Amino acid sequence: MARQAVAYGLVGLTVVFLVMLLVLPYVQSYVVSGFEDMSCEEGSKPCDEGYFCQQKTCVPISPKFNIGDVKPGAEGF
What pLDDT shows up at residue 37? Predict the structure, then answer.
């Protein structure tokens, strides 16, 4: 009985190992790095869409917006 349990354990470990070998390359291709290169140079290394180059740094096009500064009934709103 113990030999059969050991055999099932070894077969199970082999199956898990083979599945990991097949799945690991796909998982690694979808991993996103925590750090992005946000440097740029005019003309040679452009920024991504939605950013522009300012002082060798990619800056978002949309301005910062503080909702706390908005007052109901103010002009323009």
Answer: 65
Q: Average pLDDT in the 42-69 region?
A: 82
Q: Which residue has the tokens 């040679």?
A: 44
Query: Token pair of 60, please?
Result: 């978002």
pTM over 0.70: no
Q: At residue 24, what is the residue type?
A: L
Full DSSP string of 32-74: PPS----B-BTTTBPPPTTEEEETTEEEESSPP--GGG--TT-
Instruction: Classify 55 in phi/psi space as left (phi over 0), alpha (psi -120 to 50) or beta.
Output: left
Question: What are 76's strand-pairing partners?
Answer: none
Structure tokens at 76: 């323009």
What number is the average pLDDT over the span 29-40? 67
Rounded Cα distance, 58 and 52, in Å: 5
Which residue ranges make up each domain of the chain? 1-31, 35-63
